[in-house]
């Protein structure tokens, strides 16, 4: 583990974690906006091809940034499927992409699926989009499994005695990711000339325990292992578990109510001291990884190790 990955649970206010000690933006000031992404694709070895691309949790936060930046890297005649519970926010994003030149006028078809992925019907609606759009002209299938929730961080693990509550969390954060990924892979089976890329938005919590974050740690660990298994079963898949780092999102606001006092202080200090990444900063690193395409499949790659 590199020197930048000190556990938050060990921080007590005097911790030596560089995130708590120096501004992230001093090290990574450059944010890749959609126009920058186009220039990178034009000057680099390749763009992301003529793609069928799905982004879950696309209405806000990292998912919205992924949608904006990946749209600029898709060739004409690609399809971008944006999935989230809020149909209104998806429509706002669709309009933003159109205004940026990445919509249908630029040869990109943007489809919206307002659905709850914690429900079977929501997953089936997204898979149906994939089945209806499957085409021999597609060069690249991309699925960004981004949708996730933090869960109740105001309690310790021993309080979760209600199986329905736990099942509901796991249904949205784990079961849906497996069923959605399986359905999309079936809609786009392996064939010559088709690259298939799965991106799982992971976390340090997939590897390390954090007090009062039992649901989140469990969900992230399960998802990461799920995609590692997929990579073993399907050697042709390009699988990436990406750790985006601590970002300024709604989830980070929720994390400030963490029950564990040391972890709560660490989370609050990152916010108050300006140590949080923007979603655009983290997403830029992810796009670079995908464009270079030289990572080991199933790798668990952290923003701060890149």
Describe this structure in words.
With 306 residues, the protein is of the alpha/beta class. Helix content is 43%, strand content 14%. The protein contains eleven helices and seven strands. A seven-stranded parallel beta sheet has the order 3-2-1-4-5-6-7, with helices on both faces. Helix 5 links the parallel strand 2 and strand 3. The longest helix is centred in the middle third of the chain and has 25 residues.
Short description:
The protein contains 11 helices and 7 strands. With 306 residues, it is α/β, with parallel strands linked by helices.
Task: Spell out the helices and strands N to C.
Answer: HHHEHEHEHEHEHEHHHE
N-to-C terminal Cα separation, in Å?
13 Å
* Secondary structure tally, helices: 11
The proportion of residues in beta strands is 5-15%
The side-by-side strand order for the widest beta sheet comes to 3-2-1-4-5-6-7
Name the average pLDDT.
87
| Main pleated-sheet profile | 7 strands, parallel
What shape does the CA trace take?
globular
Could you tell me the number of beta strands? 7
Radius of gyration: 19 Å
Structural class: alpha/beta
Low-confidence stretches: 1-32
């Amino acid at each position: 583990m590199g020197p930048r990955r000190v556990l938050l649970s060990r921080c007590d206010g005097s911790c030596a974690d560089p995130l708590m000690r120096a501004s992230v933006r001093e090290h990574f000031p450059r944010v890749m906006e959609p126009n920058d992404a186009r220039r990178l694709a034009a000057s680099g070895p390749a763009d992301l091809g003529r793609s069928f691309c799905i982004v879950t949790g696309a209405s806000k936060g990292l998912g919205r940034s992924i949608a904006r930046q990946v749209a600029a890297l898709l060739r004409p005649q690609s399809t971008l499927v944006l999935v989230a519970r809020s149909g209104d926010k998806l429509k706002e994003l669709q309009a933003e992409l159109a205004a940026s030149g990445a919509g249908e006028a630029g040869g990109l078809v943007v489809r919206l699926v307002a659905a709850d992925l914690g429900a079977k019907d929501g997953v089936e609606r997204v898979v149906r989009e994939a089945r209806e759009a499957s085409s021999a002209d597609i060069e690249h299938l991309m699925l960004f499994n981004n949708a996730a929730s933090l869960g109740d961080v105001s309690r310790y693990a021993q309080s979760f005695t209600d199986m329905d509550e736990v099942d509901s969390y796991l249904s949205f954060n784990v079961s849906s990711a497996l069923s959605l990924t399986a359905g999309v892979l079936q809609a786009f089976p392996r064939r010559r000339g088709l690259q298939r890329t799965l991106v799982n938005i992971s976390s340090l919590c997939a590897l390390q325990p954090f007090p009062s974050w039992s649901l989140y740690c469990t969900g992230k660990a399960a998802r990461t292992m799920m995609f590692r298994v997929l990579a073993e079963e399907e050697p042709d898949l390009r699988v990436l578990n990406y750790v985006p780092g601590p970002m300024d999102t709604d989830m980070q606001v929720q994390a400030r109510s963490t029950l564990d006092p040391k972890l709560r202080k660490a989370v609050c200090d990152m916010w108050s001291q300006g140590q949080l990444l923007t979603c655009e900063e983290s997403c830029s690193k992810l796009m670079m990884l995908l464009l270079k395409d030289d990572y080991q499949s199933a790798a668990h790659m952290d923003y701060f190790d890149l």
